[in-house]
Amino acid sequence: MFSEIFTYYEDPSLAIGEVVESTHYSCTLSSYSLGKSPRIGEFLTIRTPESLLVGIAVASEIVPQTPTAMVEPLKKRLEDLESIYVDLSERFRDLTRVLLVGYWGNNSFIQGLPPFKPKIHTLVFSMKKDHVELFLKTGNELSMRYVEILVTYLKQEFPLILEAHFRYLRDLLGRTMLKSLILNSIKYLNLALSDKDFMRVSRILKEVI
Questions:
Q1: What's the pTM?
Q2: CA neighbor of 113 nearest in space, from 150, 60, 64, 74
Q3: Angle between the N-to-C axes of helices 175-192 and 195-208, in degrees from 0 to 180, rounded to the nearest 10
Q4: How does the average pLDDT of the chain come out, rounded?
Q5: Of 71, 100, 116, 202, which sits with the fewest C-beta atoms within 10 Å of its C-beta?
Q6: Measured between alpha carbons, how far is 119 from 48 in angstroms, rounded to an integer?
Q7: pLDDT (mean) for 107-136
Q8: How far is CA 57 from CA 61, 99, 188, in A?
């Protein structure tokens, strides 16, 4: 199974960007197309030479290509600027922060921090729907154990990112699957959150459904 899944992420032309910063729990993706970064909450696959890492897009920004560059207002429509400055997209970087929530090991996807961080220039792909469904299962049971990682590292941003993540899952997998995933996530959220934060998250989840 691994070779089939791994092969899907071998074509560089399908990659949406590559890693430009890396830590043991997150990495930064630089998108190849300006303004076309992954949606917040989306699952991403990071292809290392040895394995596959799974991440979730949790933040995004566009910055000048040169850190010291100043961006001045030009009072023109973006489409006009793109025709005047043909290299406009090359002057900026579209960066996405990706939180690592799993990896491939022992012939299956494992939810949890990977044993190693991705190297710089590692290719990043949007995760295929079939592979998202596979990642969300432990054996034959649904599992959202990885939400504990989101709680730990996102802190104050967590409720908003969780909402975006569940909206992404709803659009990708449908409402029926989403309801089952939310029910599964509650036991992990209940352990990781204070009563006050759990009530806040519960209200958000009701709105998403």
A1: 0.87
A2: 150
A3: 170
A4: 89
A5: 71
A6: 8
A7: 95
A8: 12, 7, 20
